Amino acid sequence: xxxxxxxxxxxxxxxxxxxxxxxxxxxxxxxxxxxxxxxxxxxxxxxxxxxxxxxxxxxxxxxxxxxxxxxxxxxxxxxxxxxxxxxxxxxxxxxxxxxxxxxxxxxxxxxxxxxxxxxxxxxxxxxxxxxxxxxxxxxxxxxxxxxxxxxxxxxxxxxxxxxxxxxxxxxxxxxxxxxxxxxxxxxxxxxxxxxxxxxxxxxxxxxxxxxxxxxxxxxxxxxxxxxxxxxxxxxxxxxxxxxxxxxxxxxxxxxxxxxxxxxxxxxxxxxxxxxxxxxxxxxxxxxxxxxxxxxxxxxxxxxxxxxxxxxxx
Length: 313
Ligand SMILES: Nc1nc2c(ncn2[C@@H]2O[C@H](COP(=O)(O)OP(=O)(O)O)[C@@H](O)[C@H]2O)c(=O)[nH]1
Ligand SMILES: [Mg+2]
Known about the structure:
This protein is α/β, with parallel strands linked by helices. It has 9 helices and 9 strands.
């Protein structure tokens, strides 16, 4: 009896949805960073357990209050990820606890009318201190206090008794096996949707562009990262022992940002390229020559036509 279906990862920004996707797949597909709103589009990750099940996980941009057109598209992508699915994984940050913002997301999730698994993520960051402590505000769990996490989870269970809860760490993999087993039980009997050897149905170029953007995010400060978009313009296998040729353009919104990305004597761009190449080679399993360019696309985040050029639907 083979089971298969679609499962969406939903939660506010930065709770660890993309890290969890990678942990569930056992491979890196989605980019992650401490900066909120790292994930911009929906990403499908496919986990196939031979003769048992195929789970298509949908990672989504966090649900937030949009400030520009890109933000609107991100929230729309997250909302659309609640349609035509078989189950929802609601991700809650165990360090922050269940806060008002999570409650808003619960409203959306409830409307979707699908089974929900509530995952309290980042339990590795919650220590084992037996806290008396002060009463936490609005369900908040002080870092270092396991007792209060247990209390917050218990309060959550009483409020949403029909939703099984899981305490996990996407970072070290703790609890992910149980989560996968619980997801499979919720899926309908179905043949697989995809071949058993693919990790995603996203185009390779899109995944490669994301790996480059991830390194830009990691290396850049403040407002610049949010103004970055990456487009892979060429991927060519040059045969024989030659490295695969990958050309990509990093877009920013202003000349000043272009200067920051290029850095002193090109040092920043070089470092972004060096780090991204390592990740791309791991993804493709072959040596790569990465050719990086930087261009200004003025205010692209607020232009429908420029967003379309960059592949946002
Ligand atoms: N300590 C800890 N940090 C985590 C865990 N999962 C994610 N993070 C961190 O939380 C930040 C946001 O993660 P990300 O997956 O990008 O969140 P998303 O916005 O919900 O997709 C990153 O810095 C992650 O390394 C976890 O289980 N434990
Ligand atoms: Mg993400």
